[in-house]
Amino acid sequence: MIKYEEAMRQLQEIVRKMENDELDIDQMSDQLKKAQELIKICRDKLTKTDEEIQNLLNADTQGE
Fold first, then answer.
1. Which of 4, 38, 54, 57 is the residue whose CA sits 20 to 30 A from 28?
2. Which of 46, 39, 45 shows the shortest CA–CA distance to 11?
3. pTM for the predicted model, two decimal places
4. pLDDT for the residue 61
5. How high is the pLDDT of residue 56?
6. DSSP letter assigned to residue 62
7. 9 with 15: CB under 8 angstroms?
8. Residue 42 near residue 11 (C-beta atoms within 8 A)
9. Minimal CA–CA distance to 34: which of 48, 19, 15?
10. Which H, E and C letters describe 12-57, residue by residue?
Protein backbone atom coordinates (compact mmCIF):
# COMPACT_ATOMS: atom_id res chain seq x y z
CA MET A 1 0.00 0.00 0.00
CA ILE A 2 1.26 3.45 -0.87
CA LYS A 3 2.31 5.69 2.01
CA TYR A 4 0.49 8.92 2.76
CA GLU A 5 3.56 11.04 1.98
CA GLU A 6 4.02 9.38 -1.41
CA ALA A 7 0.34 9.86 -2.27
CA MET A 8 0.59 13.55 -1.38
CA ARG A 9 3.76 13.91 -3.45
CA GLN A 10 2.06 12.36 -6.46
CA LEU A 11 -0.98 14.62 -6.00
CA GLN A 12 1.25 17.68 -5.85
CA GLU A 13 2.97 16.58 -9.05
CA ILE A 14 -0.36 16.15 -10.83
CA VAL A 15 -1.46 19.62 -9.73
CA ARG A 16 1.86 21.10 -10.87
CA LYS A 17 1.50 19.54 -14.32
CA MET A 18 -2.08 20.82 -14.63
CA GLU A 19 -1.09 24.32 -13.56
CA ASN A 20 1.74 24.36 -16.11
CA ASP A 21 -0.44 23.00 -18.94
CA GLU A 22 1.84 19.98 -19.32
CA LEU A 23 -1.02 17.52 -19.94
CA ASP A 24 -3.06 16.94 -23.06
CA ILE A 25 -6.75 16.07 -22.69
CA ASP A 26 -6.16 12.30 -22.58
CA GLN A 27 -3.40 12.62 -20.02
CA MET A 28 -5.52 15.01 -17.96
CA SER A 29 -8.35 12.48 -17.81
CA ASP A 30 -5.95 9.74 -16.67
CA GLN A 31 -4.31 12.02 -14.12
CA LEU A 32 -7.67 13.12 -12.70
CA LYS A 33 -8.64 9.47 -12.19
CA LYS A 34 -5.31 8.82 -10.49
CA ALA A 35 -5.78 11.94 -8.33
CA GLN A 36 -9.18 10.65 -7.19
CA GLU A 37 -7.59 7.37 -6.11
CA LEU A 38 -4.77 9.19 -4.30
CA ILE A 39 -7.24 11.48 -2.51
CA LYS A 40 -9.20 8.43 -1.34
CA ILE A 41 -6.00 6.83 -0.03
CA CYS A 42 -5.09 10.00 1.87
CA ARG A 43 -8.60 10.44 3.26
CA ASP A 44 -8.73 6.80 4.40
CA LYS A 45 -5.33 7.05 6.08
CA LEU A 46 -6.29 10.29 7.86
CA THR A 47 -9.60 8.81 9.01
CA LYS A 48 -7.90 5.67 10.30
CA THR A 49 -5.25 7.69 12.12
CA ASP A 50 -7.90 9.95 13.67
CA GLU A 51 -9.84 6.90 14.88
CA GLU A 52 -6.69 5.41 16.40
CA ILE A 53 -5.89 8.68 18.19
CA GLN A 54 -9.45 8.95 19.51
CA ASN A 55 -9.28 5.36 20.77
CA LEU A 56 -5.99 6.06 22.54
CA LEU A 57 -7.34 9.24 24.09
CA ASN A 58 -10.51 7.47 25.21
CA ALA A 59 -8.52 4.57 26.69
CA ASP A 60 -6.27 7.03 28.50
CA THR A 61 -9.24 8.95 29.89
CA GLN A 62 -10.98 5.76 31.05
CA GLY A 63 -7.80 4.58 32.75
CA GLU A 64 -7.68 7.56 35.10
1. 4
2. 39
3. 0.80
4. 78
5. 92
6. H
7. no
8. yes
9. 15
10. HHHHHHHHCCCCCHHHHHHHHHHHHHHHHHHHHHHHHHHHHHHHHH
